[in-house]
Each structure stands twice: as structure tokens, then as C-alpha cells.
Recover the amino acids of this structure.
């Protein structure tokens, strides 16, 4: 698969359905776990002050490498590169809205670093290769070709607590715009009593 083919969504993809797998997440305090990052030291999302956007995705493809078996037939699997590119393209707006951005997948940091460099991502990708973060939050996953991959979900976090969950996400290239619209309409900081 060529790089341009990875950056666009093919016609006829099957949209994922809301199976309730993320209904438990709003209000959840993140676990204190450090995750390897493609730039800088490991990141403990629970310790970050203010607003954080974390988009979890199955895996980015690599140019000239085949996609996993029946990838386009798995609801919600295809579109990791377009989703990452959309967060890249909206990054300045997200920063203006006062938030930091991270991507999260189960690929190791070296695999993610290739994608981050090739796609010119201005934010780090975090590796949950051991599924510690996914397991602690009970994030939805699926299996393909012997890999355990995250289903696509985006979390809006304030001071380590999940305020908003986007799940399911389709089409993935619109997710960053959905996050920006929600931030513009909402006051994601919890009320102080």
C-alpha cells in the first residue's frame, strides 16, 4: 500500500456501532502509568494538569506493507493515518483551545516513531504495547493476525479525569473536528464546589 493510499479512506467502509464498551469511562480517573512516547520522556497522563485529548487507534499502516487480514471489513479499523493527519492539521486550533494532544496505540515506540516522522505529527504518540493502560481502563480491543489492537476511542481529560468520550468514531478523519466542536460548545473543566 502506498503512502497516499494510507492517507485517504476508501469507499464503502463498515461503520462501527456503539456496543456500550466505553459507557463506563466518563468520570473515570486515569491510572498512574507512564507510557513510552515518540518524543521526550515517558508520559503519565494522570499527572497532566488541564486539558488533554487522547485518541486511541488500532494501528497506522506503513507504506509498501500489506494491511492486516480483511482490514477494510473490520468495522472502524481503517483510518488511523487519516485520523492522525486530521489531529495534525487541527493541532494549532487544539492548542489555542488550551489542550495538548496524544495518540495511543499498541504498537511499540519504534513503529510509532516511523509514522510520527513520516506524517510530521507535532505531538507524541504513546505506546501501550503491554496493554497496561488499556487493561486498567477496560478499553475495547480486537484481535487480528495475532495482534491485540485498540478500538478507536477519543478521550477528553481534565486533570487526569475523563470528561468526554467519543466512541464509536466514524469517519475517523472527522474526529479532530468533532473534538474541536465539542470543546467550543462545552466547558470541559469540572465545576468547582
Amino acid at each position: 500500500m502506498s503512502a497516499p493510499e494510507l492517507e485517504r479512506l476508501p469507499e464503502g467502509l463498515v461503520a462501527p456501532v456503539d456496543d456500550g464498551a466505553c459507557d463506563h469511562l466518563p468520570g473515570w480517573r486515569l491510572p498512574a502509568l507512564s507510557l513510552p512516547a515518540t518524543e521526550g520522556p515517558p508520559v503519565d497522563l494522570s499527572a497532566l494538569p488541564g486539558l488533554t485529548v487522547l485518541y486511541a487507534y488500532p494501528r497506522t499502516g506503513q507504506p509498501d506493507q500489506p494491511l492486516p487480514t480483511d482490514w477494510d471489513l473490520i468495522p472502524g479499523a481503517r483510518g488511523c493515518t487519516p485520523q492522525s493527519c486530521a489531529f495534525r492539521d487541527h493541532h494549532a486550533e487544539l492548542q489555542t483551545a488550551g489542550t495538548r494532544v496524544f495518540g495511543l496505540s499498541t504498537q511499540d515506540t519504534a513503529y510509532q516513531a516511523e509514522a510520527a516522522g513520516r506524517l510530521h505529527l507535532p505531538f507524541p504518540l504513546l505506546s501501550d504495547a503491554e496493554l497496561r493502560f488499556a487493561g486498567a481502563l477496560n478499553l475495547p480491543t480486537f484481535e487480528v493476525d495475532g495482534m491485540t489492537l485498540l478500538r478507536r476511542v477519543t478521550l477528553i481529560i481534565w486533570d487526569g479525569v475523563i470528561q468526554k468520550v467519543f466512541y464509536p468514531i466514524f469517519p475517523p478523519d472527522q474526529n479532530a473536528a468533532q473534538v474541536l466542536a465539542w470543546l467550543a460548545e462545552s466547558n470541559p473543566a469540572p465545576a468547582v464546589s
Q: What stands out?
A: The two ends are 53 Å apart (CA to CA). DSSP finds six helices and nine strands in the chain. The domain at 32-185 is CATH 3.40.30.10 (Glutaredoxin). The chain has a mean pLDDT of 93.
